[in-house]
């Protein structure tokens, strides 16, 4: 038999099941007792490591930059810039374009070209996977090192996105 609903002004029938107040069953195990304790204090926030741009002057007085991950690995490198101002514009362009860039995997048969800005994954003459970042105007901003696997190349792209707005460190330049 089920429980009867209480209607206003109506008493339950004599042969109804005994009704009890619905409560959660009490657990008696020691595990259950631990769950009743207050939640532990939140863990301290972890420091997020970020990479950095390393700017240097070449032997012929041009400027170049490399974006390095927090572990010191080189992620991507620029071409040569004739002025410090144009180099700084290149770094700013990575900060602007990398987070929103499309992905074009040119290693796939019949790949569909993506709109700029974009990362292009390709295989170089040596058989290694590489990527290049193109700005909205189609100009190449930076190129990667060679990777032995496409998965590693994609990780490099993710790292550029993550570190796109990293601080800049000037080496051997007239800051």
Characterise this structure.
- There is one protein chain.
- The chain is an alpha+beta fold and 175 residues long.
- It is built from three helices and eight strands.
- It has helices spanning 30-35, 84-97, 150-163, and strands at residues 52-57, 63-68, 74-77, 102-105, 118-123, 129-134, 140-144, 168-170.
- It has an eight-stranded mixed β-sheet.
- A hairpin with a 5-residue loop joins strand 5 and strand 6.
- The chain is globular and about 45 Å long.
In short:
With 175 residues, the chain is of the alpha+beta class. Helices cover 19% and strands 23% of the residues. The chain has helices at residues 30-35, 84-97, 150-163, and strands spanning 52-57, 63-68, 74-77, 102-105, 118-123, 129-134, 140-144, 168-170.
What fraction of the residues are assigned to beta strands by DSSP?
15-25%
- Total beta strand runs: 8
Shape: globular
Spatial gap, N to C terminus = 87 Å
Which ranges are low-confidence, i.e. pLDDT below 50, for 5 or more consecutive residues? Answer: 1-36
Q: Sheet bearing the most strands, described?
A: 8 strands, mixed
Q: How helical, in percent, are the residues? A: 10-25%
